[in-house]
Design goal:
Length: 249
Amino acid sequence: MNNRFENKVALVTGAGTGIGRTVAQRFATEGAQVVILGRTEETLKETAESNENITYTVADLERDEDIERVLKEIKERFGRLDILVNNAGWAPVTPISEVKMSEYDKVFNINVRALVNITINAIPMLIESKGNIVNMSSVICKNPLLNMSMYAGTKAAVEIFTKIWAKELAQDGVRVNAIGVGSIETPIYDKTELTDSGRNEHIENIRRAIPQGHFGKPEDIAAVAAFLASEEASFVTGSEYGVDGGFGA
């Protein structure tokens, strides 16, 4: 690995496990100082202990005051922010006939409102550093799955935000891109409301629909995130890169 992110500061949300953890480790390995946040200190600490360039702060993205505190801490400690990776998310699997408004509120608060809120708070530092934003969208916007309308709705919002923000912030030197995340081996599949048998059936149905025939790994997402955040992608903004084994083709 090279040090293409040396002297850069990155913030990765939802980085205690899965994709967020691996993205944070990739940036840290390439020289960035990486701040990770989430609600579970135990998993955040495990991520931070994997690389001396990673530090963590416990925060609930549904709380405005937590977001404001995190960005203030980054400003005071590092004086800059170069990369924001909006990774935190939740993916309920529920038929529309069974969706409750409490579920709707939760998934839109986590996947949409929190993403908008932290981005708004980060923009001043990103403009100052001419940095960039990497949003985690989903291939489900290209190939919708049954029983995931609430999740798909949030990721459709993220995709259009990415395109509009890229145009709005281009003159400020800030790039905004998204990754259309496909089926990746992460703990997210353990966080549904499904029974064990229902979960296994859901996973197998997805696997059969992937042209490459298998789930991806968090490292596949981290590699594309690192490219998008680097100078190699200096003329890339407003794009959505599918990392999905052909599922969204």
